[in-house]
Amino acid sequence: MTERPAQRTPNRQLAALIAEAGFSNAGLARRVDQLGLEHGLDLRYDKTSVTRWLRGQQPRGTTPALIAEVFTRRLGRRLSAQDLGLDACAPVYAGLEFAGSPEEAVDIIGGLWRKDSGSHAELRKIAFTPAGLVVPSRDWLIGRADEKVARTEVPVPVRIPAQGRPATPRLAVPVEPSRRRPPAERGPGQKVSGGDLAALRSVGELFRSLDDRYGGGHARQALVRYLEHELEPMLRGTYGEQTGRRLFAAAADLTRLAGWTSYDIAAHGLAQRYFVQALRLSQAAGDRAYGSYVLVTMSRQAVYLGHGREAVQLARVAQQGVGTSAPPVVQTLLHAAEARAHGLLGEVRACTAALVRAERALEAARPGDEVPHWARFFDEAQLADEFGHCHRDLQQFRAAAQHAERSLQLRAPVYARSRLFCRVVLATARLGLGELDQACQLAAEAAGQAAEMRSVRATEYVRDFERRLEPYRDAAPVRGYRDKVAALG
Fold it and tell me: N or C: which end of the chain has fewer CB within 10 A?
């Protein structure tokens, strides 16, 4: 790596943190190289490199961000390159920060929206980082709602880098009505109304419906542009405490949805960042239950990517964060997420215990209970789906088939992608029971549905089944299945 000429001032900040972390120079270099590999970087640092950094030499490119992340993982608190006495650098970890204030949270998420709505294709290639789950979930668990979110004065907008602090201080000035944009074009400084909040809820319902039916890739970019051009100016507008809490709640919900659609197209690092920011926005909203839902979403992504232990921890943090105060349906959702993680790990007893808790919680729900709008999807069909997935992962195929069939009977057609997943689970169970004809028929139906969606997850479910078919590749039903799939193009 080519580096800048050495400076004369030793880097005492870096030296102090090396001592605190208990690193040797060689150990720090090795960890930076390993972290670089996670992001496709072939770094060749050694103990001599660290000695040069300590003498004041500045590493180039993304390396300062990587060094900062190494210390963040070791010490359990978020550190920036500047905290290490290093220059600001390319934002490898921008978006994983758990902001210290609502204003900072808006700066971070606004920056993500702007980059994502543009032509920044590399943003969708950022790697998922399991260690990036630790600090945000811990900070949410021990944190409390922000004391104040109201904005009665509007700061002069200051664009900041994706990583770091504003270059100049904000100046609080009253809003000048004459400088406001026309009503047809929202700009920072305008007052947020009840109509604005209702519109945000409607937008969320629209994009959720599109995602359920057609996959996250169909309207994801339109959602992100809406967040950039409509929601960010609202967050930078004026509002009182009550309106502000509701605004941040809507922002958390739409940001989680942007992450969910990113997850569905396999933009996993970007999705992770959206989820972290949705978690922070939920804290500004003072909505503890919604924060637990975001953590469950993060847990599900971790399960999908094969990080079972992290998924269990996220589900348990979500449960601990709300205690027994959440409605029964929310409790069901939290326990089901933990069960899925235990199922992935093959932990039969823990998985079964979590499923029992989920089932009992749903049985405790009563007609007329107040259920958050984001949890209303979790019903008997969804619980049967969770049971089916868990039993499949535990290779308990007869039980998996029974629950998958029940879920398909109960699940409404509007949840097209969920029905596809469940159909593949049923096909896998039939295959495990030796019912090759039925398995291939079910999978062919799912493959046809996947071809109509823009969902990498849907495609991956079908491919997972096809990998399981490999031992039977010469059987007539399998040849027929492959012919049908080939005809789909």
Answer: C
pTM score of the predicted model = 0.80
Residue 91 pLDDT: 52
Q: In the chain, where are the structural domains located?
A: 12-84, 95-154+191-286, 409-489
Cα–Cα distance measured from residue 69 to residue 467, given in angstroms and rounded to the nearest whole number: 36
The tens digit of pLDDT for each residue in 386-399 reads 999 999 999 999 99
User: Roughly how many angstroms between the first and final C-alpha of the chain, as a whole number?
Assistant: 45
243, 192 contact by CB (below 8 A): yes
Write out the two tokens for 21: 């972390």
CB 340 within 8 Å of CB 390: yes
Three-point CA angle 418, 423, 427, nearest 5°: 150
CA gap 440, 444 in Å, rounded: 6
How far is it, in rounded angstroms, from Cα 279 to Cα 271? 12
* HEC secondary structure over 352-389: HHHHHHHHHHHHHCCCCCCCCHHHCCCCHHHHHHHHHH
CB atoms within 10 A of CB 177: 8
Q: Which of 252, 197, 258 is nearest to 226 (CA)?
A: 258
β-sheet bridge partners, residue 238: 191
Strand, coil or helix: what is 238? strand
